[in-house]
Amino acid sequence: MTQSQMTPAPTRQMQECIEACMSCHSMCEETMSSCMQKGGQQQMQIMRALLDCSEMTRMCADMMMRRSPMSAEMCMLCAKVCDMCAEACMSMPDDQQMMRCAEACRRCAQTCRAMAGAGM
Questions:
Q1: What is the CB neighbour count within 10 angstroms for residue 63?
Q2: Which of 59, 40, 117, 51 is CA-nearest to residue 84?
Q3: CB distance 71 to 115 below 8 Å
């Protein structure tokens, strides 16, 4: 049996969610780098949220790609972490990098909530 016979191709909704997770992961990594350059106590608090979000989105995408039976639960948790990170980024509305990251987090949260509701 080939891999394609064992595992069906991802649905369009799942593929969009995986892409949103990977995009959010990359954006959080870029934003962490930006925070490290700026320093300061506020940046350190935001970095915790960025790190959580970066790790969660990568793991969520990985779990969807391998069709983990825990994917729906992971997507719901990922949406919560993305919402938390978006809020943290919004605490610095004058920082364009933070605003781009907040947008990526919101998009990811939205697609993850949809996937969690789809039951995979």
A1: 21
A2: 51
A3: yes
Helix (H) or strand (E) holding 115: helix 96-118
Lookup: tokens for 92: 């610095």
In the block, which residue shows the tokens 């979000």?
Answer: 53
Which residues have CB under 8 Å from 1's CB, separation 6+? Answer: none
**Two tokens, residue 117:** 């509701």
User: How far is residue 69's CA from residue 74's CA, in Å, rounded to a whole number?
Assistant: 10
Confidence band of 6 (pLDDT split at 50, 70, 90): low
Angle separating helix axes 71-90 and 96-118, nearest 10 degrees: 160
Alpha-carbon gap, residue 88 to 75, rounded angstroms: 20
Question: Which stretches within 39-95 are classed as H helix?
Answer: 41-65, 71-90
* Per-residue pLDDT reduced to its tens digit, 43-82: 788 999 999 999 999 999 999 999 999 999 999 999 999 9
State the helix-helix crossing angle for 41-65 and 96-118, rounded to 10 degrees: 30
